Amino acid sequence: MNLQILFEEQTKLLHKTSLEKKRYLYTKINWSLKSIGILGQRGLGKTTMMLQYIKEYFSDKNSALYVSLDNPYMQSVSLFEFAKFFEQHGGEVLFVDEVHKYENWSTHIKNIYDALELKVVFSGSSILQISQQNSDLSRRSIIYTLENLSFREYLELLDIYKFDSFSLEDILKYHITYAQNISKHIKPLMHFKEYLEFGAYPFILEDKEAYHQKIIQMINLILETDLPHINHIDISQIAKLKKLLYLLATNVPFIPNITDIAKATNISRPKVYDYLEYLERAKVINSIKSKEKGYNIMAKPEKLFMQNTNISYAITANIDTGSGREAFFVNQIKNALSSQTRLIDDRIFSVKKGDFLVDDKYTFEVGGKNKDFSQIKDIENSYLAIDDIEVGYGAKIPLWLFGFMY
Question: Does the model's pTM come out above 0.70?
Fold first, then answer.
């Protein structure tokens, strides 16, 4: 095995890697653990984070190595044997990218953990369900999920302004102070409008003109490559999946009728449920269940949204304003609370009074600046998340401020 070629490739990658801007997850990862998994949608910066860590702590050493498993060379060797060889030649940390491209990857990671002193950091598609791997990898590896850019991160990435993040509870308590301070430095409504269309992915820095085209390409790769490989979906079903996704994107707000979806897409009812789950795990859509049925695993979702509003803009120019507001709110709440370990996912539900129940405690109604409290006036811990206002008052909070939670 020739490590020299791989180190030369890594040197080229590190030369292009900047340490100036890091994703929110970078400082939350416990990099000292023996086995770390980083999952996330394509294009969010998983590879960059790994290269940043190598550049920051191992730039003058040959004890850390980055490899991508879609490299033809790595496809031709045993990952475990490669890791063993690397350790024998001074390796301390192996960074393994695109693990979902490698057959039986989880068994190799498990064997590295059990048989070697080598630390391993691996990344892969958000579709992967580590808990279901045959090697019981979930007991050995700590898994982190990288989400799309928050509104706050977008502002920092584009050098507009660098702000601190706030917890949900602090936003509810101190939103007036926060909004006033932020509005002294930027025009939040102007930037928020831009974020909804162009702000969810770091590749906005590369080419704004081709931004939506890159999102479409990313979705095609998820549907045509990742889903068939990971979930063993027959390639003949991909056209139906694309039809399903377009149906969800253009019919908003989308309150799903499984029978109607099955007829419109020529997909069987059981498969509709499966495909909706796959699309959600792939971070292409978000589903919301009702509080009343929320703990029933088989309950159909009450509402379906694109995972973020950028995907909606990439698929169709006819964006429903109300649905876009709700999609942003759902996206930021789910992303911000995703790091909290929960026995049951109670981050956000739909409710009969108001729009959403968050953290099983707070009721929110999302709307434009003329929205009032009439639907939630008698509900404890209820708030309005309002678009088109810079600063709120009382329990009326600017919608854009929920983009500052991570």
Answer: yes
